[in-house]
Amino acid sequence: MTKRDLIEIVAKKANLTNKASRDAVSAFVASIRDSLKRGEKVVITGFGTFSIRNRVERVGRNPKTGAKITISSRKAPGFTPGKTLKRAVR
Questions:
Q1: Separation CA 25–CA 36 (nearest Å)
Q2: CB–CB of 58/71 below 8 Å?
Q3: Range of the domain at 25
Q4: Is 35 in the same domain as 55?
């Protein structure tokens, strides 16, 4: 499913125009992104939790040369599905 597909489904199920649905979906995604930027956790009950995960520094290899390189630590977004979503997918 793409963002465009999601916008069309929201428009049909909520009886909205495509423009209103696009604005709603964009606002939803932007609010999650902004919360994660601030370091906050986003919990959507029945769906899951979006959070920031810290990746530690590690040693890797350059696939072209085989030389060892150090991969620096960084933050990455993460998602943990909720119980309801897990049951629905099974």
A1: 17
A2: yes
A3: 1-40
A4: no
Span 16-46, pLDDT tens digits: 999 999 999 999 999 999 999 999 999 999 9
Q: Which amino acid is at 70?
A: T
Supply 68's token pair.
Answer: 């060892």
| Chain position carrying tokens 């199920």 | 13
pLDDT grade, residue 64 (50/70/90)?
very high
Q: Is residue 45 part of a domain?
A: no
Phi and psi of 54, rounded to 5°?
Answer: -95, 125
H-helix or E-strand containing 39?
A: none
> What count of other Cβ atoms lies within 10 Å of the Cβ of residue 7?
20
Note the residue count of the chain: 90
For residue 81, count other CB atoms closer than 10 A to its CB.
13
- Are residues 25 and 6 part of one domain? yes
The total of structural domains in the chain comes to 2
What pTM value is reported for the model? 0.80
